[in-house]
Specification:
Shape: globular
Number of strands: 8
Oligomer: single chain
Structural class: alpha/beta
Order of helices and strands: HEHEHEEHEEEHHHHEH
CATH superfamily of the largest domain: Vaccinia Virus protein VP39
CATH architecture of the largest domain: 3-Layer(aba) Sandwich
Distance between the termini: 39 Å
CATH class of the largest domain: Alpha Beta
Strand order of the largest sheet: 3-2-1-4-5-6-7-8
Radius of gyration: 18 Å
Strand content: 15-25%
Largest sheet: 8 strands, mixed
């Protein structure tokens, strides 16, 4: 039994909208689904779901399509939000008060923390990551990132119990003028590092150049332009996913290639 101590963390603004995290959810179901299915009765945590529980409800629906036995627990530090969410409780979905200590029983196969760390200082991110990763079961995944208010642009870091693994950039391609538009949605660990001399800045610069070079492919549709640009940067950067994911408006890069320089 997990000890229910004083919640660790601060109250977020709570802004949320239906379908805001659909790109992140789609990626989680595809990438983490096999590991969750190997667990007996996996638990997925929606940490800091906000003023309304839409994201937790949607996470359950999307994960259950890939992992029928998964249960979702929404965790919020604000007691009024937890009380309001009780109206949405059903089989496989519950809500508790808590923070980074994640007061949830069971085998935690996923913690999703979207738009939670953005309000913290960069220096606080490492400790938060470590604490959250410490709550994961073997094979578990922490997905921590940021998106805009309607979910058209999202960037997230995926971490295992050992630490950060990858960074994923995802967008509604029709809304994108250049890949560097995603810079404003970089997670807290990277957003202040988008300056000359830092790897993430170099990556976005190269991505923009590849996007410009691929401009003729726009005549075939924005997806074809994206595919061509991602294929080009994959020759210089450790892109870890394949065209099937690129077609979704995504690209995933190894964390070590973008990690901040100390």
């Amino acid at each position: 039994m997990v000890s229910r101590s004083r919640p660790v963390g601060a109250v977020t603004r709570g802004t949320t909208n239906p379908n805001r995290l659909r790109r992140m959810d789609r990626w989680i179901a595809a990438v983490q689904g096999p590991a969750l299915r190997r667990m007996g009765a996996p638990v997925a945590v929606d940490l800091g779901y906000g003023a309304a529980p839409w994201t937790a409800v949607e996470l359950l629906e999307r994960l259950r399509a890939a992992v029928p036995r998964v249960a979702v627990v929404g965790v919020e530090i604000e007691p009024e939000r937890v009380a309001a969410a009780q109206a949405y409780v059903r089989d496989g979905l519950s809500f508790v008060r808590g923070g980074f200590e994640v007061p949830v029983d069971g085998e935690i196969g996923l913690i999703r923390a979207a738009n939670v760390l953005r309000q913290y200082d960069e220096e606080q991110v490492g400790a938060a990551w470590e604490r959250l990763c410490g709550r994961l079961a073997p094979g578990g995944l922490l997905v921590e990132g940021t998106c805009d208010e309607v979910g058209r642009r999202q960037v997230w870091v995926a971490l295992g119990p050992e630490g950060p693994r990858t960074v994923t950039f995802a967008a509604r391609l029709a809304s994108l003028s250049a890949p560097s538009d995603l810079a404003e949605r970089l997670p807290k660990a990277l957003i202040h590092r988008n300056v000359p001399g830092e790897p993430v800045h170099a990556f976005l610069r190269d991505f923009d150049r590849a996007w410009a070079t691929a401009a003729p492919y726009a005549a075939l549709g924005v997806r074809q332009r994206w595919l061509r640009a991602v294929s080009a940067i994959a020759s210089d950067w450790p892109v870890v996913d394949r065209p099937g994911r690129w077609r979704q408006g995504e690209v995933t890069v190894a964390w070590d290639a973008l990690a901040p320089r100390r």
